[in-house]
User: What shape does this take?
Amino acid sequence: MISKSKASDLLDLFSTLQRARGWTDKRLFLSLDLSPAKARLLEYIASHDGTSQTELARATDTDKALTGRSVEAFVASGWVQRNRSKEDARAYILSLSPSGHKVVLRFGSVRNEILERVTKSLDSRDVDDFRRIVNKLLATMKDHGTL
Assistant: This one.
């Protein structure tokens, strides 16, 4: 177990990393007028063609109201198509339009550029150490009901 001082330093590091992630997300999605949550929704639709809006909200852990508003905006922008399900005529399924695919590819390439810059000073051992520490912290948070 670490001292309170070291624990405080750890929390400060997490806060700094979170702010840096926020900066990266803003830079990544600003030109597309997307929030990180909306980008997650769009990426999920891209990788799960034919998903329902309910499944989209559940899979991305996004509020149903935000999901609904986002889907409406995606449809209005022409990025997403909403069609009746062949299995259940009451349900709708979502898929990306060609312009939606272009948007997802665009922020995918920007994300890759940012990742290359951020990770160029890391080696595989650094990534393994980071993964091990994060998994250890997540397991502790789960054990104590904080996650």
Summary: The longest strand covers residues 80-84. The chain has a mean pLDDT of 86. The beta strands are 80-84, 92-96. The CA atoms of residues 124 and 130 lie 10 Å apart.
